[in-house]
Design a protein that fits this description.
Chain lengths: 114, 114
């Protein structure tokens, strides 16, 4: 039972490069989301999805794209990396939008943009 | 912008002390209130999800209460132990149309000294 799997765990990018952070869950959860964690800022919502084919913006969506072609996968794309995107990124999933159940978090991706 | 405030930001207590933290959230568009425990170098883990005004939840020495009318929740730890050292996050679960999202507070970091 893997839960939520994020890859890579660490990444260094140069300014302007693009990359995709991968997130996969094997719990058949409908709801998936991406958060970034910065010192003193807590967890901030980037994008979320309530099911395959449906995505929406969170608090800090600029510079990021997402898609949800399957229930299991929810990749986060950085289009043109900037130093301000240096952060720790967490993917999280919940069973369904209308069930008040807790998140299962992935182990995080530490991204540095130089 | 939805404001979720947690206080205090950090807390240092002696082993055996009891302690409590506060989470303040908007009193409108409330769906649920989540509490998470986040140990260093790990991912956040769900402690409680509360939905009804007056809800009380308990897990071992940790308990939580909810007041949706005034927009606050308390987390209590009875007889703190060094293994309780962690950051405790609350998240305001709100719903709009068919989608919902969780907005996190900045957390309260607890350090329990042996």
């Amino acid at each position: 039972n893997a839960g939520v799997t994020q890859t890579p765990k660490f990444q260094v990018l140069k300014t302007g490069q693009s990359m995709t952070l991968q997130c996969a869950q094997d719990m058949n959860h409908e709801y998936m989301s991406w958060y970034r964690q910065d010192p003193g800022m807590g967890l901030r919502l980037i994008h979320y999805s309530v099911g395959a084919g449906i995505t929406d913006q969170g608090e800090v969506p600029n510079g990021y794209n997402v898609s949800r072609s399957t229930t299991e996968d929810f990749p986060l794309r950085l289009l043109s990396a900037a130093p301000s995107q240096t952060s720790v990124y967490f993917c999280a999933s919940r069973p369904a939008p209308r069930r008040p159940s807790g998140y299962t978090f992935g182990s995080g991706t530490r991204l540095t943009v130089v | 912008i939805l404001n979720v405030e947690q206080s205090p930001q950090s807390l240092h207590v002696q082993e055996g002390d009891s302690t409590n933290f506060t989470c303040s959230f908007p009193s409108s568009n409330f769906y649920a209130l989540h509490w998470y425990r986040w140990e260093t170098a790990k991912s956040p883990e769900a402690l409680f999800v509360m939905t009804l005004n007056g809800d009380e939840k308990k897990k071992g020495r940790i308990s939580a209460t909810l007041n949706t009318k005034e927009g606050y929740s308390y987390l209590y730890i009875k007889g703190s132990q060094p293994e309780d050292s962690a950051t405790y996050l609350c998240a305001f679960h709100t719903f709009s149309g068919n989608t919902g999202k969780l907005i996190f507070g900045q957390g309260t970091t607890l350090q329990v000294k042996p």
